């Protein structure tokens, strides 16, 4: 029996995650009253049952203290029940934007500001987030990328760390990405923009890639960057970091940065058990 508790911030993607788990064979139940949780678990996990995978959704609601739900989970563990906790999260800016788009009120601030509700909810969920087996930050995740992450954990059963690494190419003329944790400037390389046959192409085109990577400095930069990230990422994972955005910038964000971002992605995609995605902000292509 695989038993997963799905919880997290309101607007973080909990219900989407439950639907995706249901699609891969989980029996999903959402928003059970707290007094019924223990009885439900006892019934569903009894020996000889036909159900082998269960997901239980828990969230913060104004009508019952979340602490009561946490106490029930602690009691279940003490009674020998095994379960995993999946925590769905997103940054405050994203959560507020999602609430505004849906015109919903936050359950902890029904008559106040959404930001106040988000702040209260973070404090309430702080304890269970620390206990979570998996934390998925959906701030920058596409729906298909979330499905890939859930499949890695619950279908492929791969060893999983909650760090999501985003490699992001950009152009300095359009501003440094506000969410970048690490920023690298590749404007030291010759610019394909000044070569007529390459000007209208991007770093996603082989001609541009061959030109940029023909300079030994490009390969040396890539080797040094990969070596540094091989050192940093395990330490970030150990410290509980959930998101790492690596920005690679050139002047316009179309040629050099895109090429190096693609190369870095190719070097990193099979190197660790963390989530990895690639995004080109300013070249008009993903």
What report would you give on this structure?
There is one protein chain. The protein is elongated, with a radius of gyration of 22 Å. The strands form 2 sheets. Strands 2-3-1-4-5 form a 5-stranded parallel beta sheet, sandwiched between helices. A 4-stranded parallel beta sheet has the order 7-8-6-9, with helices on one face. The chain starts with a strand and ends in a 6-residue tail after the last strand. With 286 residues, the protein is an alpha/beta fold. The longest helix has 23 residues. It has 2 domains: 153 residues, P-loop containing nucleotide triphosphate hydrolases (Rossmann fold, 3-Layer(aba) Sandwich); 117 residues, no CATH class.
Keywords:
single chain; 286 residues; Rossmann fold; 4-stranded parallel sheet; 43% helix
How many domains comprise the coordinates?
2
Described by strand count, sense and barrel closure, the largest sheet is: 5 strands, parallel
The CATH topology of the largest domain turns out to be Rossmann fold
**What's the gyration radius in Å?**
22 Å
Number of helices: 10
Mean of the pLDDT scores? 91
Question: Quick one: CATH class of the largest domain?
Answer: Alpha Beta
Arrangement of strands in the largest sheet: 2-3-1-4-5
State the end-to-end CA separation: 39 Å
Named at the architecture level, the CATH assignment of the largest domain is: 3-Layer(aba) Sandwich
Gross geometry: elongated
Unreliable runs: none
CATH superfamily of the largest domain: P-loop containing nucleotide triphosphate hydrolases
* Strand residue percentage: 15-25%
Element-by-element helix/strand order: EHEHEHEHHEHEEHHHEHE
Class based on secondary structure composition and strand pairing: alpha/beta
How many individual β-strands?
A: 9
- Helicity, as a percent range: 40-55%
